[in-house]
Batch of 4 targets.
Target 1
Amino acid sequence: MLKKTLWVILFILGLTILSGTYDRIDATTRANALDAERLEPNDNQMLLPEGEYAISAYDNLFRNISDSEGNDWRLMSAIAYHESRFTPDLCSPRGARGMMQIMPSVARQFEIDAETLNDPATSIRIANLLMNTLSKMMRIPAETSEEDRLSLILAAYNSGIGHVADARRLAKAHGECPNSWESVARYLELKADPAYYEHEVVRCGRFTGYRQTAAYVRDVRDRYARYCNRVAR
């Protein structure tokens, strides 16, 4: 019990440092951090043969795992396409691994051995838990449009929640809506300028990855829309 409590504290502290925000994290987010019991690699779903799947041979895994975590499997498939083209053993130059390109440090925060990240089921489950954790930590108001909500979460998945949190604070400091992707994207771009990344509300410093993040958000959203048109949830 003591070991699990320590892991929860380290998990929350790690995500808080990455996010650059020291706001209170609610009990639901803490509970989400303990969902490692469900991260059993090598689920018994068989890969679908060509011609019998709508998006990828991993359709069953995406459906079953994403549904259990409350996410749209077509969205998670769109993320997988842009992260790895559904390649389970991909390793990036920065060390991100597996189909969903999970960093070993993130896997450890979920009490998962980084050596298992090439397992598709493990990668998909961690990505779902991470998306849910990001969503809870960002505390996007319920009245926010689904397009803005999705864009903000995808930007955090790609660039780190800390830079997105900075851009939201900058938007608010300049009298703009911190829940509008249009406004937040603009301040993500401006975070390459010292006039903005040295602002008192900024906690994660300079950001130079705006173009990559903006393209990622746009491309994943577009592919998700195509998948939604192709197959029912």
Note: Residues 210-230 form the longest helix (21 residues).
Target 2
Amino acid sequence: MMRQTLDAGLPLLGLDLPEETRQKLCDFAAAVVKQNEVMNLTAITEDDQVARLHLLDSLTVCAAAELKGKSLIDVGCGAGFPGVPVAIASPETQVTLLDSLGKRMKWLETILPELGIPARCVTARAEEAVAQYREQFDYAASRAVARLNILLELTAPYVKVGGAVLALKGAAAREELAECAGAMKKLGLKLEDIREYPIGDACHAVIVLRKVSPTPPRYPRRYAKIKQSPL
């Protein structure tokens, strides 16, 4: 069922992936569901839901951006979405997975080599790891981490000028974007596009925000401060 749902959804994203890539996507998703029996990775465990809400949703990144030969950081990757499906579908993209939960990242560090998936794992908080990785990536992607006005301060500092933040959102994408005019200006971002994709009976959006000038060094602030008073 997972494979059927994946196969049916790819044309709607404008993607055509080789057989072995599709299989590897399903293998990774199955590994997440299996590991979920002993570790809290996902609330989504039904095959067709996993294909739609984890795999196809993550692959909207590949549909929304030209990733070949580029670098991408998945900020707050959780169980590996969207970063791992991106690394599988676009092996010529250098993918870095960032999350602060050590147990989860240890599991990813073990399972990814087993499945032959190239991605670097970094265990750290987003607002702290930026000291090492500031403005080093072509793209920063993120999903289900925070509202956009908070998320932008955590992701924009990682992106080179000329690169872009790719924020994966659902039905509230435009509403969240409306809160962000001030944040975008302060962080050096400009709205380029909202790309919407039908997956099942829902609309999934990728908000593409182009980095037009460097993010001032004072950002990101401490997370408590970001949450308390978003830009």
Note: The chain has a mean pLDDT of 93.
Target 3
Amino acid sequence: MNFLSLDVGSTCCKCQLFSESGEILAYKSEEYPLIGREGEEYVDIEGIFARVKEMMRFASAKGGFSSMCISTFGESFVLLDKNDKAVFLPMLYTDPRGAAEAEEILQKFGAEELFSRVGVLPQSMFSLSKLLWIRRHAPEAFSAADKLLLICDYLGYMLTGERAIDYGLATRTGAFHVGKRAFDGEMLSAFGIDVSLFSKPVPTGSVVGKVRRAVLEECGVAGEVTLVLGSHDQICSALGAGAVRAGDAVDGLGTVECMTAIFDKKPTDARMGLQGYPCVPYAVDGLYCTYMFNYSNGSLVNWFKNRLLHGYKGEEKDFFSYIEKEMSASPTGILTLPYFAGAATPYQNIGAKGAVIGLTLAASDADVYKSILEGTAMEMRLNAETVKRYGIRIRSAIATGGGANSKKWLQLKADIQDIPVKTLRSSEGGLCGCAMLQAVAAGRAKDLAEAAAVFARYKDEFLPDAAMHAAYEGQYKKYKKLYKTIKELTDERV
């Protein structure tokens, strides 16, 4: 029995074919463009489905599969009419449309009640805010809409004819009652929206149904294929990294850093939502997760490498070999505030500015580079300390993404954050998570913890050094004061 896992992004689709023993049999990745209409950009929903079918065709030729599962990005949705024709294409989560509507939602219900019910506070990114924008600015499309489908349940509907969405992605709509595990009919009714517009919420890993014979024939797939319900890409990535217990966390070190932390008690304090931390039902029954962000992570490293050093690498094979070879073992004493693209959690200030403080003529390029790594590690420590107020404790982390290739960065994170950090055999954690969900659905594993033992395989582990952790304490205390200080200096209203 083979499992086909797919990870669908806004401009790229990836797939891996797994054996039931956890071996990776094949991999494929394809990019596709966004659609431009009247000066705005939209997700090419039909193009995505075409790529999914290409992936199915590819996997069939590489050994076949009996089930499949899809991980997707969140928030974006397509509106279909009764004939399943798209009447409004998916807006990107970065699209600012819906900001005024988000404020109206907040004013109508209040932060305390909203966070208690739907686990998030309104933002323009969430589906409900954008749906209200469509009703106001594209009333014909809103009136014609018969179904609202996020990317995952859209693909599931096209593959099987069944409409199902998991609890994790449902939370990204901003209209899902986390406690009741259902779309909030009372809240939707207050805005004149019929709850039947949304798909049926069910647990992550549920069986959606059999893939339609016409689709299988088009893709050259023999036999029957079961579609297992995937989730938000952040959840699948965390699952594929083996995060199945409270206290586990997965640190995605990409252009943006996102740490997904797992916990077992639903917080009720709305300050958590005001600081940007959602409360999302996790793939493991009884657990929740939240997301901690730093907008300037890999992007900040690339800025330093390309804009300031212009890619200089000395006599080494690449920039990172050069710069990390020159790094000192001790703390730099240079403070880098990594808000070069604004501050995410916990400050939620897109206008925040970054800074590098403490430079002298003795500072080298490697010192400044290391201070960037120190600053990003301190930022995640700040986030981890902040969520402790809400009963969330991070005991260990699994690093994924491009930054996970730097052993020195990961050792810094372990030392500064005082937690062990591990890496995976493959950076495609989301695809592994989808394979785990299929293994449980097929009865090849009794639960996700057992599936993790087969599919989530680790490469390196970095343990915190007590002496280095103590050496960074003074620098970290200063770091925590930086945001307020820099804000006062750069606030244009002063």
Note: The longest strand covers residues 12-19.
Target 4
Amino acid sequence: MRKKEGIVWFLYFATALCGGLLGLMLSLQAAVLAVGCVAFCALLTAFFIGQRKKKLKELAVDMDRLLHGDYRVRFLNYEEGETAIVANELAKITDTLQTQAEKLKNEKKYLADSIADISHQIRTPLTALNLALETMSQKQAKQLTRRMEWLIEALLKLSKLDAGTVEFAREEVLLTQLVNDAAAPFGILMDLRAQTLDTSKVSSGAAFLGDLAWSTEAVGNVIKNCIEHTGEGGTIRILAQENAIYTELVIEDNGEGIDAADLPHLFERFYKGKNSGGNSVGIGLALTRAILTAQNGTIYAENTREGGARFVLRIYKGII
């Protein structure tokens, strides 16, 4: 910078000298006028250089504040020129850094809350197991240990999805196979409750590109929820179709339905609705939503006209 300024001042000096000499060849007044014009231009240059240095100094101070974590710096005092361009780019960087800082802050808070929730959820069955270990039957002990095992596995899956470390397959998933695989683990439970699973309206050709194993987990959680909230002799119906925009899977039951107050919170993790059973921990549906979201999908719940619950799962063919 100083080298360039030196060249500028040398050129002004050389111009003034040449102008003065040439002016003397005409008259003294011409020489004075030539030197005066050059001097005036030099003063203007000095003024603008001084202003530029001042802005650069202010910019350096603002950058130092930004580097020390002061995201209140807005870089709005630079109106034109190269400094304004640099300030504009720095303003963009500031906004990005501020957004990332807020995101990290929220993620830390979310992680702390999640750890607290996990500790609470695991502590409950552990406490029950410790208090009743001597008096409970082997069957009861197995039920509690299975519940803890499922809870830990579900929380680990949610953590992997949150961290973005899950690699989902991109292969054709037939809905007939998906429904069969998802419902298979609940066959005995449904028999004991005299419940019926109606899959007659699952289109044989309906499919989507996704991960069969993870999708089976997502659909299985919804089926499990419907089974738990449908009385003995009830029916769970599954409908599936595909169109040019998405592949849709509808799971509904003729049970007690979903309380209106629970609908907005149904897919929040650790949320337990008014009609939740004593063993519910509020993980299954949250895990389902996370799996579908990761595969460009959505899920929402509503009540049927008859009063039962309906879950609509969609996997979109394009970005939504």
Note: The longest strand covers residues 235-242.
